[in-house]
From TrEMBL:
One of its GO terms (biological process) is DNA integration. It holds the Pfam family Phage_int_SAM_3. The lineage of its organism: Bacteria, Bacillati, Actinomycetota, Coriobacteriia, Eggerthellales. GO terms for molecular function: DNA binding. This is Site-specific integrase. Residues 188-366 form the Tyr recombinase domain. Keywords: DNA integration, DNA recombination, DNA-binding. The keyword DNA-binding applies.
Amino acid sequence: MPYSFFISHPSLRTVRHVKGEATTAYKDEKRGTWFANFRYKDWRGVPQRRSKRGPRTRREAEAWERDFKKRVSKAASMEFGFACDLYLQDTEPRVRETTLEQKRYYIESTLKPYFQGMLVGDIDAKTVIDWENHLLECRTSKGKSYSATYPNTLCSQLSAIMNHLVRFYGLERNPVQIAGKVGSKERHEMDVWTKEEYLRFSDAIADKPYSHLAFEILFWCGLRVGEMLALTPADIDFEASQIRVSKSVARIGGEDILNPPKTPQSYRTVTMPAFLAEELNEYLMMHATSNPNARIFPSMTKHLLHHEMTRGTKAAKVRRIRIHDLRHSHASMLVAMGMSVPSIAARLGHAGETVTPPLYPLDAWR
């Protein structure tokens, strides 16, 4: 609707016009309400126009205009999708590729679809609460609700975007901080295997030495999947029965990318059980390579690990756990063996001196 309409229409009466600001409030004589129509500049300095119909008084119309102009300064006038792209662009040089891919996934799969077409300034605490309630009602393709940690992770990602806009693009406040987060930061429940359960599973997949060896390392050494995938013959000291962890593999865009370990504490040396050192030595002798820096598991993928986990648990008739829960199972075994918490944290490469306690009787390990 052209601006001239508001100037000439007989049902509207100009009650205020501040020279130089193109700021005008009108009264709709027919409806008995007020109409705010004004120009402003968005965060890029581009002139825009905004209107608001329905305020009951001139004061309400002017207050709405003032509040809007305050909110749209810089970041608040960005479309949310554009703000997300800007956040990723600014963040890319500062984070690992795997972290960036994870952020991009959360943004593209969940945040952008919900807040599509909205201005950042229109996302207030109530909008965030409505979105959080939506997350709590969402179901997976199998009809299950999200895990307790997933909504919290999404809230943290939205909050990170808003904090970035506050810090660098002039957004007045972070609405997620006002609304609060839903979900749980930590998993309160996780499945872990006893040694007997793992041995039954291990026997069931022993017909495939390649994947069997990968699971042996994950369970008996507590390595992260990416750390296991990055291992080379040069990382193995058979005389000392030790594995040197100095890198990690992540799959990005269908390609394996070699990265540093997750944290500085992740650089470590892990002692293997003697039987595992023998298994690993025999495997490498049968699959000898002239390159000591060639990966031991070059064709192993998380998909293959999940496939073998499903196959093995069905054959062994043991409950299925997540691949990462093999690491938790290892930690629980160490607790049951009496190893100190700082020693366990160092073996696992944790950033802090804490580990998750076992969630089943310690007698299961004895």
